[in-house]
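Researcher: I'm comparing several assemblies side by side, and this is the next one on my list. It has 1092 residues spread over three chains. Same procedure as the others: predict the full complex and return the structure.
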Amino acid sequence: MYLLLREIRDRPLLWLLAFVPAVFVAQKLRPEAHAQLFVLSILAIVPLAALLSRATEAVAARTGDTVGGLLNATLGNLTELVIALAALRAGQYALVKGSIAGAIVANTLFMLGASFLLGGIKHHVQEYNRVSARLQAGLLFLATVALLVPSAVAEADATAGAGYIQQLSVSLSVLLIATYALGLFFSLKTHREFFGSAERAETGEIAWPLGLAIATLAGVTALVALVSEVFVESVQQAAATFGMTAAFVGFIVVALVGGAAELASALSAARKNRLDLSVGIALGSASQIAPFVAPMLVLLSYLIGPAPMSLQFWPGAVVMMLIAAMTASLVTNSGRSAWFVGVVLLVVYLIFAMTLYLLPPPLQ
Amino acid sequence: MYLLLREIRDRPLLWLLAFVPAVFVAQKLRPEAHAQLFVLSILAIVPLAALLSRATEAVAARTGDTVGGLLNATLGNLTELVIALAALRAGQYALVKGSIAGAIVANTLFMLGASFLLGGIKHHVQEYNRVSARLQAGLLFLATVALLVPSAVAEADATAGAGYIQQLSVSLSVLLIATYALGLFFSLKTHREFFGSAERAETGEIAWPLGLAIATLAGVTALVALVSEVFVESVQQAAATFGMTAAFVGFIVVALVGGAAELASALSAARKNRLDLSVGIALGSASQIAPFVAPMLVLLSYLIGPAPMSLQFWPGAVVMMLIAAMTASLVTNSGRSAWFVGVVLLVVYLIFAMTLYLLPPPLQ
Amino acid sequence: MYLLLREIRDRPLLWLLAFVPAVFVAQKLRPEAHAQLFVLSILAIVPLAALLSRATEAVAARTGDTVGGLLNATLGNLTELVIALAALRAGQYALVKGSIAGAIVANTLFMLGASFLLGGIKHHVQEYNRVSARLQAGLLFLATVALLVPSAVAEADATAGAGYIQQLSVSLSVLLIATYALGLFFSLKTHREFFGSAERAETGEIAWPLGLAIATLAGVTALVALVSEVFVESVQQAAATFGMTAAFVGFIVVALVGGAAELASALSAARKNRLDLSVGIALGSASQIAPFVAPMLVLLSYLIGPAPMSLQFWPGAVVMMLIAAMTASLVTNSGRSAWFVGVVLLVVYLIFAMTLYLLPPPLQ
């Protein structure tokens, strides 16, 4: 417990935890102040996400390489998953899909671009291991192709009933999760020598005892879930207040909020000239959301959603994910980076954000 | 003749030749049993295709490097061509187009993926020459772009008359065949040192005399033509019986049946750690169908078809061919492979197959 | 002045300057002979463009590396810009957009392809520096993504008013120009060592005094502007006479005429086995038009056009630009070339030209 408090004292980002009780108080006192609740819940989720990823790593560090790798690979995007589950239970499928697509795009374009830019401003040319970057870009490309299929079919054939799309979505989800599991087997077991898994450990942080780590993981997850409820309830009316649509909020706001902690780690690694780590965080997260988190949500929608959710996305989101996946492939091909590469990635992200902000299209 | 019999004795695949007379007997006795005729004719085509590719190679081996290369390049997909011609004569253009698109996708995704997977299970990391892989991936990409144009034009401009599409298809066909011929000139004449053409010969098989080889080539081609007639006649009603559409049958069944012999060679080479050969067979076949077999069929439709055939494909087929060509480019870029790369390719193929099976779109 | 005359005497291309007065005489005498005026103005623009790029380089050579690089980067496509401005003032937006898309495609496919082919016929295998080729292909890809967005939005959402598209186009234009400026800062300032900028100078030409260079630049720009007026006035009726559409004229004719001088330089460099220079001219020009010339024209349309021009292109043009950008990325990835690579690029260009010629789609 003392370790946890020291951690909070040393990382200014965690001071935002003060907003967690503020959310619950505000919700009790003024449940109709959607705009304030929206802002407060965002401010509360950011430090919780940081704490969550710290706890996941602490558990992973205590459980050996393979189990730890598995934990990181399944719980690495726990914040995004918990927020999406809250939206799923509320039946806000546009928000869920927007946040999936947004997280993929934000990780491959914004997080990677910002890492390249910040790292490149300090270091003239940076190099990184491209073997694992390639595997992740490949998985991401595969998953994007799979996510594209139901939308393309629905587009091409107006007579295709929703039942067909749903059946296709479930089959694709099972296939994607199986492929993701095989990918883990590949990178954690048969070909682990290509993936420097040790690298993440030596960040000089104080090791947490397993008990504290698991307790933090459980407690913080519960808190994220509670704050997410408030967030999801307030999002629609708050977005309207700020002149934004559910598409923009899901695509940009949720994605950036859910990934804030990872973003901080990736940027700090890039400035320390450890670009391998930055690229690993950015692409690792994206290549986990597309073939694992997204299909899990489709399957879970049968258990907790008001109706089954499909993998059919708004065409623009599919195009954006495809462009993001292709850009990631092209960029990581060379294994070298300079600041302008980061600018190009950030500009592509900005173009997408601007398009969504200026002209909100009817997202599913 | 003795050589031919010994060949048949030594390769269990060729025992399926017993189904060839069975097809003709069954057609005489029960011409209305479409489902049985369909299955029998598939079982008969597989060994005939194997014998055909063996005979082509035997003739090629006897006629020197350049002529042999030319023969391999023009007769390498003779089975697919003969089946497509039977469908062309019957006016079944959906089947023809489906089998063209299906053969390209099956070769680049299924054959390449299965080779990488089987080879990778036995060998940790495999390397292969990527110069010729790149040329073939490039030709394939070019041909896919050409095949995409008429469909895109028809899509974009509903007022574009069928006459325009047809004129465009013929011009593109002539252009593609000319490019294919220049590509042969490049790989067989001016830059042959980059393409290890000798490699295919030394497979330890007994050399056939030229007479036997040519006689086998002619005889087996005739048999394939006869069996194909039965196949094409029975396919529509048989597909309906099995709950499949012409699109699915053309795209998956015809493509896999026509390429079964090459698939066997590619897989056996991959297990022997001769991945150069596997990649050569898979991409070589795809990069021959797209810029040579497909345009030949368009031109031949003027001679033997009931009406001219265009290059306009169902949009989904174009997307699948494009994704296959792009995937082949990305994958062969590194010249290295491990089992998971094979899994990714196979999953993309499975996604396409599943999409076609679950929701049969209106193919042309 | 003597230097200028000697230059004209030594370069047969410049003898076409005789057509410049011919255009003005013809316009006075027979203003209604559109077909003749069209041909005459094309013949007059070609040598003027050559002189213009010679003068730009002469000024650049006198003003030091950084300022010279800036000049080349902003005035390098002055001819295309002046023609486009004439069309802009006349409100011929289909011609403007066609010439932008056409210039990008012509530079990446036709100029690069012809260089690879002509160079490859003389030299077996040619190598070139791929670092700067990659930066330019990257910028081009980025700009193409940006140009794609307004068209995709307009396509996806029919209810999107023209106002939205216009607002989006202006924002994207500002963003692209800023990115282009950052790219210049990168290649001329922070990472100049990767970009062999000295290379262009040592072409053995006689240095011009600064006064002559600036006077020529100013005078020839004025002449190009005057001839462009005639060209734009005559183009519509002349195209109809020759059975061509504004789309085809803009996409093919204007692009090739405006780039004729650069084409001559690129081809001559390729034959001298200086492929670095050819690739630099071809991709440099394309990656200048997409993120600089095109957005400049959008912004300038507010000042001199009859109405604001958007970045919305005819879908086919977007597809062609995307394929051109992707092909450039794939091809320049290896840094090696042989004649068949050139054939493939030229065939893709021919396919596009043929499609536009056979079936003129409604551009704009």
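Model: For your comparison table: Chain A has 14 helices and two strands.
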